Amino acid sequence: MWQIIVAVLAAPFSYIMTKLLIERIRSSGFVGIDIFKLSKPEIPSLGGIPLLITYIFGLALLYLIGSIPTSVFASITLVSIISAFIGLLDDMYDLPGMFKPSACLLAGLPVIIFGTYIPKLYFPFGVAFRITYIYLLLILVGISVSANTVNMFDVINGSALSGTIFTMIVIIVSAYLMGGDSTRLLPGILFLAVLIGFLPFNIYPSKIFLGNIGSLLLGSQLALFGILYKVEFQAVVAMLPFIHNSFFFLNKVKGFIEHKRLRYKVTYLDEEGLIGDARDVNAPITLIRLLVAPNKMNEKDLLFNVIILFLVSSGLALLSIVWW
Amino acid sequence: MKISKSTIYIVFILVIQYLFIIAIPIILFNIYNSVVFFSGSVLFDQLVKAIISFLSVAFWIYQWMWLTNRIYRSLTGGR
Hints:
Chain A is mostly helical. Chain A contains 14 helices and six strands.
C-alpha cells in the first residue's frame, strides 16, 4: 500500500517541478506560438523536461525500495530517455521529417535487450498468436509509431496529454483486471501520476506545451506499458482517436510531419477565435478537421469533444475485457 | 460545451473499427488453425498466411479511410 502512495506522490512533485521550470524554460527562449488564440501568445515549450525529471526520479525511488526489478527499471528508464532525447533534438534543431520516426525505432531496443516482453499477442474470445520474431519487430515499430502518433495529435491545448491520460487509465485498469502481481503496475501508476500533476499547466488554456520531448515521451510510454502489461489490444483500442488522426495524415502527407511544417492549411482561426475547416482538398482529414467540418468551434469546445472521443475509445477498450 | 454532430459520426467510425479489430483476429485465427495451404512446405504455408494477414489489414485500413471520407463529405455537404 505504501508503495502506491510513493507512486501517487509523483503527482504533486510533477506539479511543483513544472511550476519551478516554466519561467526558466521561457527565459531560455524555448517557446511556441499558441496559434489557436487571437493574441498568438508565446507559451513555454519543452514540457517534457519536468515530466521526465519527475518520472525518472520516481522510477529510481521505486527501484531503490525494491518495488520494481532491475530489468523493468532499466527498460522503462532507457525507453523514456531515448524517446525524450530524440524529441529534445527535434525541439532544438528542427530536424527533417523522417528523423523522429526513424530514430524512435531505437527507443524499443531496451525492451528487447532486457527481455521485458512476452512474444504473444492476445485478443478477445481466447484468440492468441505466438509470433516470436515478428513481435520483436512490433516492439520497435510499435513504440516508434505510438510516440509519433501522439506527437502528431499535439495540436490543440491538452489534446495529446488528455488522450494519454485516458489510455494509461485503460492500460492500468485492464492489467489489474487481468490479474497477476499488482506491484508490477507501480511504474504505470507512477507515470499516470506524473501526467496528472502536469495536467493543470497543459490543459486549456495551456501555460506550457509538451514539445516534441514531451509528446514522444508520452507516446513511447503508452506502447511500452501495453507491452509490459500484455494489454496491447486494450492500448490500441484506447488510442483509436490518435490512430485515426495519424492514418489520414500519413495517407495524404506520406510522412510523419508536424502541422506547422505542412504546406497547406488544415484548419484556420477566424476573427472571433473559432477554429474552422480550411476546406483545402490537398490537406489531410485530420481528427480536428473532421470535428470542425460542419461547424466552427472554439478551442475549449473542441478539446471537450476530443475528450468525449477518448472516453468512448477507453470504454470500448475496457468492454473487451468482458470477452477475454 | 456540447457534443457536436461530427463527434457522433466519429464515434460511429471508431465503433466500426473496434468491431474490425475484434473480428479480423478471430477470422484469421480460425483460418490458420483449420486450413493448411501447402501441406508439403511449412514455409509456403506461412507465406500464404502472412499474405492473407496483410490483405486483411489492408482491407481494414481501406474501409476506414473510405468511411471517413464519406462521412467528411456528408458533414460538409459534399464540398
